[in-house]
Amino acid sequence: MRTRQRVLAAVTLVLAGALSAPASAVSAPAPTITSVAPRAYLWPHGATPRATKGPQQLAYAGGHQGHGVDTQPAVYLVFWGSQWSKTDPYAAYEKKFFAGLYGRGDDWTNSQSQYCEAVAAGSVDCPRKGPHVGPPSHRQVLKGVWFDDAQMALPTDVGVQIGTDGTGDTVAQEAVRAAQHFGNTTAARNRDAIYIINEPSHFDSPRFGLVYCAYHSALASSIGDVAYAAMPYVTDIENPAHAGLSCGQNMVNSGTAGTYDGVSIVAGHEYLEAVTDPWPSTGWVDAQGSETGDKCVWKASGPGAMDNVHLTTGTFAVQGMWSNLADNGQGQCVTHQRGSA
Ligand SMILES: [Zn+2]
What residue ranges do the domains of the chain occupy? Predict the structure, then answer.
């Protein structure tokens, strides 16, 4: 979604400083963050929806230093903070979801393979040849899982966005630590990497649930551009404090089968937006600033409605994504598509 830069608050500086020292010895010097992209928010179901009038198609916004889509995406799941239990079924569910993507039964990621980079800004279509949103190497997008229990995760979101003074918020800093942890210490290795920073239950970022279920962003650093998603413990929203709002629980499956529907709906949303708009909003966005998932978010009926995708690792709820090519080139939300677009 359209995003806002916010001024840095002193409290974030203090918080950031407190967390910058790694608990364990790290041989390489800590990377420095030099700038941060705007956040692209996923609003909760029940929060004020954005108007979606006007031109519908996603258009290429020109990229960020030549990078506009992930041609060979790589997902790293980080379960941040000592509050996490390694046996939490939430974490297992999310891990299986990403482990199964691009394998047999995945007809969900295909619709996004139509988007490309290296085309003129404003383009709404792509040549057949050239760099497109690609499948991951070895058709395995999940490249790493890390339970970072070195210290407690601490809330970061006090209503501020990171400044351009080189200081990231605590989630951004965790993304950089994750890149280091996985050995991705060059721009090339981070180019198509996406770090999904899962916050522990009751992390309670103040605006979680009110303004967002999750968001993705990116930062520039001494180890290259680092794309990341902040993924709150989305099932926390199902409580009276957030009455009328939801981040997807039971939206596709009823009962206990749907407890984690929102985990794959929300993480999947952020994933496919990160591959089509790695540095918000320089990739594929529409005239309102909506990304591919925003245009179809919480759609419960009709084309591109939320549904299950049946992977070799299990059944997972997902939402549709926008396809410029669908509906004879008029564009439409698409949940299932056989074969690459
Ligand atoms: Zn979004």
Answer: 10-334
Q: Does residue 179 contact residue 190 with C-beta atoms inside 8 Å?
A: yes
Ligand 1: centre distance to CA 126 (Å):
22
217 CA to centre of ligand 1 in angstroms = 10
324-338 per-position pLDDT tens digit:
999 999 999 999 999
Rounded distance from Cα 280 to ligand 1 centre (Å): 10
Cis preceding-peptide flag for 281 (omega within 30 of 0)? yes
Q: What is the pLDDT of residue 50?
A: 47
Residues 118, 68 contacting (CB under 8 angstroms): yes
Tokens 């320089």 locate to 282
Strand partners, 142: 75
Rounded distance, CA 249 to CA 260, Å?
6
Pick the residue with more confidence: 224 or 209? 224
Distance 24 CA to ligand 1 centre (A): 34
Find the 150 Cα to ligand 1 centroid distance in Å: 30
Residues 6+ apart with CB under 8 A from 284: 58, 59, 60, 61, 68, 69, 115, 276, 277, 291, 292
* Span 213-218, average pLDDT: 94
Structure tokens at 303: 């084309």
- Spatial distance between the Cα atoms of 293 and 210, rounded to a whole number of angstroms: 19
Distance CA 130, CA 146 (A): 34
CA separation, residue 212 to residues 90, 183, 207, 250 (Å): 19, 31, 7, 18
DSSP states of 43-67 as a string? PPBTSPPPP--S--S-EE---BTTB
